[in-house]
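Problem: given the chain below (383 residues), write out its structure.
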Amino acid sequence: MSGIDLTGLEVRPSQVWGGVRLVPLVRSEPVAGLRLHREAYDDPDGRVEVGDGTVYTAYVPHGFVADWSGDGRESAAYGTRLGDAPGAAVPVRAPRQRMAKRRGGRRLRFLPLHLALEGYLALHFGGPPVLWEEWSRQALRRGLSPRAEAAYAGAEVPGLAEALRVFELHPGQCGVLVYVSDALASAFVVPGPEDYRALHPTLVEDLFGELVHQYARYGGPVPEFAARIRDGAGGIRDLADLRAAAREQERRWTLAHDGLMARELLETRYAFERVYRAGPFTLYRFLPPFARDGLGQHIGELITDRRGRTAYLKTFRLSDAQVRRGYLLRRLASLDWHLGRTAGEMGISREELVRRVTAAGFGPLLDANGLARAAREAASGKG
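Solution.
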């Protein structure tokens, strides 16, 4: 598996509120055998016990419990706790614990988006495998720990709460694609419409990146979807003709949306990591290729059934700076963190690579004396 497959989900015409566009995703039939259950956290400091006496403290938007027992008695997730004062970017640090934990029987608790963020923050977490002279001993002892990124709660994204409040849900709606200034901010899919009706409001409690927050605050309104049915050569003679013309407009909207607006999500090849197998279902987290092609890139979580159909999906759009950090880490790791070879592979000077490493926030891992010594050797023709 290398891509996100939304087979079985159909898009419906978008609804617009200012700069926020919501594109409904509907299923003709829900995914059988899986439900998302309610999990609220009561600790006001957002402290979550993850086992072995370890406590993980962070922004916990709401906990999901995947239930494949088949009883289907519960159908929602809610609740939010935040340790720091609200109204600002929420720091999310690289955790060392599992963000998915079996709850006994056929139930699995996991924190939405924390699985994905953990995968991104732990990217090449160990640091250099060899102590090249430019890298400090701290880099070998501690790697990239601790890493932190900033995210905003959905309630802090201007216009999102109002959009979720006023928009109507479609029959059979099982998901939504959230656009801000027509940039894809998030994808959210659940197994069935009952789950979605309960979980639709929780999008304001999810995490959104800095870029999405900026687009919402400084971007302008986006055009609304409008279907224009013209009385052409064949004419509209009765309700059947009108219905057929309306369906053709929906088909054209779907083709335009999937081929243009959602292209960055659907055509990207991701690296998937299996987190848990739950009966016939499998929970993954995924990372993008960190390509510098100008397209938006997402991290996220995915549950598929045994046929590979998407039962659950939640994504987080990375900022340009986060994509650059991921790209830089991957290039360094692919060449054993050797600055000289990496700079040559990237077509830049060693000095420019050091500048980029420092600008990315990894400067403390570098050894100043080693850099100076390497620079002297390169100047004398010995490097």
